[in-house]
Known about the structure:
It is a single chain. With 630 residues, the chain is α/β, with parallel strands linked by helices. It has a domain at 3-154: Cobalamin-binding domain (Rossmann fold). 41% of the residues lie in helices and 14% in strands. The protein contains 23 helices and 20 strands. It has a seven-stranded mixed β-sheet with strand order 2-1-3-4-5-6-7, with helices on both faces. Strands 8-11-12 form a three-stranded parallel β-sheet, with no helix packed on it. A three-stranded parallel β-sheet has the order 13-14-15, with helices on one face. Strand 1, helix 1 and strand 2 form a beta-alpha-beta unit. Helix 2 (51-58) crosses helix 3, helix 18 crosses helix 21 and helix 21 packs antiparallel against helix 22. It is globular, with a radius of gyration of 27 Å.
Amino acid sequence: MPLTIGLVQLNSGARRFLPYVAGLLQAYVQAYAPEPQAYHFLPPLSEFDSLEKSVLELLTADIVGFSTYVWNIERSLAIARQLKQLKPEVLIVFGGPQVPNQAESFLRQHPQIDLCVHGEGEATFLAILEQAGERAWSEIAGLSFFDSHHTFHTRPQAPRRKALSELPSPYLKGIFSSLMAQAPAEHEWAILWETARGCPFSCTFCDWGSATQSKVNGFDLPRLKAELDWFGQHKIGYIFCCDANFGILRRDLEVAEYAAQVRSKTGHPRALVVQNSKNVTDRAFAVHRTLSQAGLDTDVTLSMQSLNPEVLKKVKRENISLDYFRDLRGRLMRENIKAYTDMILGLPGETYDSFVEGICTLIAHGQYHDIHIFTAGILPNAEMADPAYRAEHGIESVKSRCVYVHSPVLSSLNESIFEYQELVIATATLPKPDWVKAMAFGWLVHFYFFNPGCLRMAALILHHSQGLNYRSLFESLMQPSQSEPLLQEIWDFFCAKARAIQNGDFEYCQGPEPYYLGQWWWPQEFVIRRLVYQGRLSRFYAEVQSNLKRLLRSNAPDTPHLLLADCLNYSQTFLTLLHQQEVRELNLHYNLWEVYQGLLRGENLALRTEQTQFIKPWQGAPYTLQRVFK
Length: 630
């Protein structure tokens, strides 16, 4: 009688992905087991409707394997716990990045787990199945377990697999056929996709390099092209490429070009999101130009994480130079390719001053599209999780409920089992008050410059035409006068939200209906919606104008008074239209639109006086203005 195998890879709730890891395990067993018919696989479990339903789907299994990460570990543990209570003889195996490499305390804390798998799991899982009758684990590489005398054992990981072509593709082998057949015809699946494994970097905040720290090995090109054909044929909507450094291999450009061809022929995939090579080369630039022009991946990541040399040394990271960053950013702008930069708040050695200066330096070097500011997180197998490392750098952390920006609030709050992330909220060089101020500064920069960018036009034009310093601009808005209470309210809100996160609050904000659409919002998005729908946008811009006039008097006294007014009028009009509210006309005294668009392309056009009128002589959609040419 065959052994019945259950595989669990629960989604986060942000998207509905096919359970790729579960598919890899099943495909490998069916390809390499001496007697594949000895194993019967249940449909993989990827969605969590309730604990009772999930356990019921697994009750017939003899062995259940769980693939775990930060977004599913608590639900996975709960399923395993209840399953073990109902069926003590079931063998429960846990793998994935959330399983600590030093697993003894983890196993003691969670006695429902029989085996922990470390590293690549395909061959290890097959070895477990082959030894399941005898439960003889001592010769299997990459396992941690307790023996019958409750003595802990751990086996070194096997060498990383170099010949990735030996791994069957779960997509091409039809592993997900029955699962996909159960979905509505109009459903578009999301896909996790590997084109390579490995990461040559060893950043202390990341568990990727710590898991491999070696050469990148790629899957063969014919397989990847066949998978792309499969994605197109099955109308896959979204692909997340799991590679740490897509673009690092020579053949990656050919992969990107083939993906673009498939998209052109089939209309799918609609998106192929990659994490580009950390130090972007000419090849990586060509890869992203290809993906961008095909509409597959419109944003390029220029990762920096920090601009502080001391921080980079402590986290074992090297960045591209600022000169190279500026040149590369200019190339991307001229190609009309959007590029954002990652920064991490809370890395060892970072200070409030270095963090703020880093953000302002990036903007000054041409980062006008976006800076993604992430809160440093503690991952179980990253060096930053090591107790000695944490003590050395004074790292303090808090557990925060996992929710996903722009996802439904109600479904998050109605969950029966919560997932948590461990966030860094202070270090020796960034004590709690400074962390609050730095986090609030990041939201303030997004609010005024990036998203929604209430002052992006003013900031760019005043910087380039009048020499206004970005940091001076932002810090002026952090320190409004008594006659600017709304600006003070905004800054206080950002600080209060940061303090709430330090106490375990959600990273995102929720608000009353109908203005917040039942979704989670970034703090800066929350604020702009409140200003618009409470009818306070005009008052907000009046206070901004007062604040910036005061700043300009001391920093750029020769600034024409109509220039600031024009910039603010444009921004207020744009935001009003963005929220589908009526605007009749906009009159400007300068050629601001041309200059602004030039700056966004990396061009410095001459600013000149020019009477320009934009009108909206219709009601309702579209919420745009048309220029009047005289």
